[in-house]
Every structure is written in structure tokens, then in C-alpha cells.
Amino acid sequence: MKIGIVCYPTYGGSGVIASELAIHLARKHEIHLISYARPVRLNMKGHGVFFHKVSVGSYPLFNYTPYTLALASKIIDLIRKKRVELIHVHYAIPHTSSAYLAKKALGKDIKIVTTLHGTDVHLVGLDPSYKPIVEFSMQQSDRLTAVSESLKKQTLEKFNIDREIEVIYNFVDSEKYKRESQNESKEKLICHVSNFRAVKRVLDVVRIFGRVVKKIPCRLYLVGEGPDKSSVQELVRKLGLENKVEFLGNTLDTSRILRKSHLFLLPSEQESFGLAALEAMSCEVPVVASRVGGLPEVIRHGIDGYLAEVGNLEEMANYSQQILRNQVLRRKLGCEARKRVLGKFTPQRIVPQYESLYQRTLAK
Predict the structure, then answer these.
(1) Which of 174-183, 305-314, 332-341 is the least confident region?
(2) Predicted local distance difference test score (pLDDT) of residue 44
(3) Which residue ranges does the record assign to the Glycosyl transferase family domain (predicted)?
(4) Pick from 205, 288, 286, 200: which is nearest to 246 by CA?
């Protein structure tokens, strides 16, 4: 098959999954990935994926660069020159709209698969400025997928569409994300990875850590960048935790940090899946997270991690202390987390689901 994959190149889950999917598919198919910059997971050599950059010119007429049109033109060019059969877009805004525009401009029955990742549904997609076109674009897709049952339910409840939505979970490279040794140092390591947006509640991560560090020797690694970073840094200073909290910024390889962590915190307001949690689980790191969105589909409360209501910092801190104090419990949770990943969320289990979806779509 000749497949075009469209995604954002950022560190968020949609870009990571699209890139990883492209890399695995390229072993058997001709894969062309389209974005305005090379995705972070495509920086390594030898992956076999053809990358096509969308260039957006700057014109005095436009206050905002017309990326939707530039992307549509790039898709048209790709279909004409490479005879791509199917376009798989990750994140509905504006990728699905661009793919549909390209399809109509060409006058060909190019198949469009849209994968919904979350923010494109429950945040941006519901904005009155975007909702009508998002709704229309989803309706025009040949196939719709969602990364969790929770996201599927939200989409069907909030948008007037009559399309079937197939749930295909995210996955993690379990060979890359695996624990190399049990680090039982006296000072335990707590980790959080995100894009530092308000929905991630990184301030709560610091507040939870502030409670835990009073009882247990530990450090906090904060991985990522984003609009809330300065507020988080200010809270760290206010709580006097400068010597206990490290800001590591964006990193191409979070596995090297997760491998030596003892606990992963994800107290988000909303998570359609929780890829960062899955990567931690693959490294046998127990997760304490919010009971929201798709997280209960990934984390089994009391088996491989713990879930609490959003904003219940005391309960999350108590779960965190239990895990850090009790080595037997921590290893048991970590072992179950790894088993959970291997049983349900590996490329070997997920990538064939996308291949089957493509084949069924092309056969329509």
C-alpha cells in the first residue's frame, strides 16, 4: 500500500503515535509523512519513511498563514507524484479539512482515514469557530478512529455525525521502553512528562510532590515545555523546592528517564488516552493519575497503578507515598504494568489493526 500520514510534528501524543506508526508500517508499505516540520520521532536514520515538509509562505495580505491550504496543496502534489492511495490524518483540525479539500480538487476517490486524539474533539473542536467544519470533515472521512472508548463516546455525544468510530488504542515500543535494572536508591525519583498546558495540571504535580517530599526522600523530574512552565517554576520557588525539582525540557528519548523512575504522576484534567503513562508502565513504573477520559482503560486501579478524582491531591499524595515506601508493592505494580503493556498496547498488536483498517477502506 502507498499511504500518506499527516500529523503535527510536536512532542504531543498524536505526533508521537503517527510517527511511530509510520516507522512500523514502512517495513512493509510505502509511507509518506507530511507535516510543517520533521516530527521528533523521525530524527533517527534508517526508518524508511519519506518525509514531505509543508512550506507556508509569508504574505502581507494574511495576518495568519493559511496552513490548511498549503497542506491541501502538498497532499495534492503527493497524490499526483507518488500515487498515494489513502491519506491517514492524525488530529482532525485542520488535517481532515485539508485532506478533503485535496480530494475534491483532484476529483479522485482518494480515501481519508481520520484518527481523533482528544483535544481536537473536547477542546478545539467544540469551539463555535471550528465546530461546523470539524463536524463536516469528520462526516466526510471514509473511516474514523479514536484512541479510546471514552473519546469515541465523547465524539458521538458532542458532534452530529452518523459515522462508525473504530477504537484503536495507542501503543508503545516495549523494547525501547523497558527497565534495565531495579534502582533502589534511598532518594526516589518521581517523573512527569507533558506539554505543560493547563489541562495537564502540572501545578498539581508540584503540589503532590511537595506533600510527598516532606515524608520521603525524593526528587521530581519535569520533562517538557509549554505555556504553564513559568507558573510551575514560580510555584517551585514559592514552596522552596528548587533543590528537589529538575526541569529537563523536551527530550527526544524519555525512556532513559523513565527507566530509572520509581513513580509517574499524571493528575490531568482530561486525557483521551495517556501515552506518557503507557510509556512509564512499559518501564515498570507505577502511575498515579486522574480518573478521567481514557486513563481507566489503560491503568487498572490497584493492579498496575492508582486513580483518583481530578484535584484530589491528598489522595494522590497518599497513593504516591504507599508506592515509594513499599518496595514489594512498587515492584508488583510495575510488573503488572509491564504485563498490561505487553498484553494490549504493543506495535505487534496495534499496527495490524491499522493495516486491516486501510485494506477495508481501500476495498470499499
Answers:
(1) 174-183
(2) 60
(3) 174-340
(4) 205
Alpha-carbon distance of 353 to 303, in angstroms, equals: 27
What single letter denotes the amino acid at residue 44? M
Quickly count: other Cβ atoms within 10 Å of residue 314's Cβ: 12
Type of residue at 131: K
Contact between residue 168 and residue 354 where contact means Cβ atoms under 8 Å apart = yes
C-alpha distance across the termini of the chain, in Å: 15
Average pLDDT of the chain, as a whole number: 91
226: helix, strand or coil: coil
Which helix or strand (DSSP H or E) is residue 32 part of? strand 30-35
> Which amino acid type is present at position 345?
F
* Residue listed under C-alpha cell 491519506: 87
Q: Is pLDDT at 125 greater than 50 in this prediction?
A: no
Rg for the chain, CA atoms, rounded: 21
| Domains contained in the chain, CATH given | 2-171+346-362 (3.40.50.2000), 188-344 (3.40.50.2000)
Tell me if 6 sits within 8 A of 75, measured CB to CB: yes
The grid cell for 295 is 486513563
Q: Note the pLDDT of residue 66.
A: 83
